[in-house]
Amino acid sequence: MSAAAGFNFVGDVVERLARERPRDEALRAISGDGTVRSYSYADVARHAEHTAAGLAEAGVTRGAVVMTMMGARPEWVFAMLGTWRLGAVVLPCSEQLRAKDIALRFERAAPALVLAAGADMAELERAVQDVEHSPPLVDVDAEGLPAGGQRPGVAATGADDPAIVIFTSGTAGEPRGVVHTQGYLRGQSVQAEHWLGPHPGELSWCTAASGWSKSARNAFVAPWSAGAACLLHDARFDAEERFAIVAEQQVAVLCQSPTEYRMIAKRTSLSGGRPGSLRRLVSAGEPLNPEVMDVFRAAMDLDIYDGYGQTETGQLTGMPAGQRVRPGSMGTPLPGFALDIVDEEGRPADAGELCLDPATVPTFFRGYLGEEPYAEPRWHTGDRVRRDPDGFLWFEGRIDDVILSAGYRIGPFEVESALLEHPAVAEAAAVAAPDAERGAVVEAVVVLRAGQAGDERLVRELQEHVKRSTAPYKYPRIVRFVDELPKTASGKIKRAELRLVNGGS
To answer: Which residues, listed in sequence order, are joined to residue 31 by a DSSP beta bridge?
Structure first.
């Protein structure tokens, strides 16, 4: 897309809403101590303007990088908006990062300024000692966000101008900075309409922490693109508390990670039923197991609408609003998105690697930080999926995670879903273990629920359970019990790490 196609999220979305609906609520925030603050669209636009002025006076110029490191709070939103208003680039970071992680981001992104919560300053100061050129650090709890007197106008950015850098989880090497543009922000309107689904005036809550891809697009960008309000909660996840907040704040759309849905299903009774305001549940990040969906449907008479995307691509698929949910499916491609499936030889297939045409995906990334823009005609996701006769897509696993056993291709997700149906299992991962006869066999790494004993009897019981739930050749010939599964900071299971334990690659 040409830079002549002008777009700036602050001017074209936030300030438009401030003109059209100045008094309507845009943002509601619950702090760690339970204090609730509310901001209208006019309030948000004013804070964005003040922050942009302060950033400009602090030396931030168009194209410069502003790093944020704080929780899901209004200051985080205003920092991002102020940065975009200037035509600068925001780098949102998780508060779980340690000094080594932070130093890598300093070196790769060279931020002009860092805006952080007071609790994160010690780790940032340790990181500063490890880099040659360190950025100024601003403690927003002590100093507040920068605010200036001379208020610059909204930068005349183009849709292909950089707007945000999000680092990958680094599960297959060092984290890489994914550069998204203003067009990525504009493109969120597609998933907002066809998957996330908030209506104007409703309250939408994406619970993802403020450093992650899903939060950057679904905490406020997608809801505001649909004219809805958004909720922020600056506190750690609590399974018992989650739906109490939904009811108290009258949330209409709840976007959670699969891990959060699983933990709620396992740890709570959901006996309170569905909060009256709640009408839509969505999930993305990794596949959500059908049995977890069944728990919520039984307790709340609501389906969970699953979807799929990557840090580089944004949301690509979703279970379409208004259609019957197919538990376990990642839905269909968003309208206009050209996705295809290819086999090992690159030929069209109904099962294989999911690929896409970048020209059809408005949220596709510009390129990796420090590298040339991505210019290939096809993007390989690295994920294996299958397509059913009705066009719905089903995730089978990362290409590297697919288990090849005696000529069979076994996707880990189906095995894991079968295991999670067993009442003794809290979490499970399926990986390949080397085998002299079969090449590899399925190994199940299992976290048990409290009070369960991981003995040989339970091993046999779990194996028989999987045989009954899915094709018998997929059952785990090895079952290993652990206290916890290794995960990335965003909650995804590190299957490669589990494979290394048993001698796999």
So the answer is: none
Expressed in percent and rounded to 5, the helix, strand and coil fractions of the chain are: 30, 25, 40
Q: Are 45 and 24 in contact (CB under 8 A)?
A: no
Q: Is 96 helix (H, G, I), strand (E, B) or coil?
A: coil
Residues β-bridged to residue 28: 38, 231
Model pTM score: 0.84
The sign of the dihedral angle between the CA atoms of 73, 255, 88, 151 is negative
Determine the 3-state secondary structure of 493 from DSSP: strand
pLDDT per position as a tens digit, 447-499: 999 999 999 999 999 999 999 888 788 999 999 999 999 987 667 788 878 88
Helical axes 99-109 vs 121-128, angle rounded to 10°: 60
> 99 with 169: CB under 8 angstroms?
no
Q: Tell me the residue ranges of DSSP E strands in 272-378.
A: 280-283, 304-310, 314-318, 329-333, 339-342, 351-356, 367-368
Q: Which residue has the tokens 């018992």?
A: 240
Looking only at the bridges linking them, the beta strands covering 203-206 and 229-233 are parallel
Which amino acid, 248? Answer: E
The size of the chain, in residues, is 505
Label the pairing between strands 25-30 and 229-233. parallel
Q: Which residue has the tokens 């490890």?
A: 130
CB atoms within 10 A of CB 388: 11
Q: CB–CB of 179/289 below 8 Å?
A: no
Distance, in Å, from the CA atom of 368 to the CA atom of 356, rounded to the nearest integer, reads 18
pLDDT tens digits, one per residue of 277-332 = 999 999 987 778 888 899 999 999 999 999 999 999 999 999 987 788 999 899 99
Distance CA 279, CA 295 (A): 16
Residue 61 burial (CB count, 10 A) = 11
Residue 238, token pair as written in the block: 């609590």
